[in-house]
Every structure is written in C-alpha cells, then in structure tokens.
Amino acid sequence: MKNKKSLYFLIPLVVIVWGLIVYKIINNKNEDYSTTNIAHNLKNNQETQNITDTFKLLADYNDPFLGKIAPVRVISKIQKKQSPPKVEEKKLLNWPKIVYGGIIKNKSSNKTVIIVNINGIGKLMSEGEIFNNIRIKKIYKDSIIAEFNNETKKIVK
After folding, report:
1. What is the pLDDT of residues 82-128, one digit of tens each?
2. Has this prediction a pTM greater than 0.70?
3. DSSP for the chain, written as a single string
C-alpha cells in the first residue's frame, strides 16, 4: 500500500522533470545568434590594457637528477592584452528558406534529381540548375551545396 502512494507521487514528478528537460532543449535550438551583435561587441572592447604579474617560484626541493637544491627565482612578467583582430563586417544576405527533401537517382540514365522546397515552393532540381537566384552547386546524399548571390551554403536534409 505504501509503494502505491509513492508511485502516484513519483510518476508525475518524473514526467514534469523530463518535460522541463525537453522544453529547455527545444528552446535552446531555436535561439538565433546574430553575428552583427558579436562584431559590434568586439568593436566596443578593443581597448588595450597592461597587466603586471609578479610571482615567486619556490623550488626548495632537491633536484632529482643532480641532487642539489634549486635556487629561488623571482620572475616579473608584463602582459599586454591585445585587442582582438578586426572582424570584417560582411553584408548579411537574407537567404530564402530552403528545405532539402531528398534525392532521386535514375539508375539507367545515371541522372540525379533532388526535391527542394524554396520559400514554400516545391521544385525538382538537378546540379547546376537555378531557381529564384539559387543555384545548386553540388548534390550529396544527406546535403546539398547551394549558391545565392555569390555566397555558398550547405543545406542538410
């Protein structure tokens, strides 16, 4: 009887914990990390700072090879923080939404055709074909290489 009461409490608790884990994973995948914010932050933090660091090595143990006690040394080191390298701001292109649906290969003619959905429009395309300024450069089983305004992008199935 006691085990049934704890079971009624533990099952909903487990469901809630797993629900929170799945929710956090899904939420984390949907976050968009913008490269323009990173470039803007790098420009603001390009200050150089000098840091002086002094430390003392206490090597007062016997040298295992020579059998002598090592001398005490004081080392002073000035570190200069270097500004991060300048990041070129690329003009970010608004790629249309491209979904790679799959590949169709004709065994007799050895011709390969892919199923692509570009901005909600389904299309059968082959390598080198252009649709809505998108050119299919290379076709693989699990991905395609597409080109849009001289910029290439890998789209995974």
Report:
1. 666 666 666 666 888 888 988 888 888 888 899 899 888 888 898 98
2. no
3. -HHHHHHHHHHHHHHHHHHHHHHHHHHHHT----HHHHHHHHHHT----EEEEEEEE---SB-TTT-SBPPPEEEEEEEEPPPPPPPP------PPPEEEEEEEEETTTTEEEEEEEETTEEEEE-TT-EETTEEEEEE-SSEEEEEETTEEEEEE-
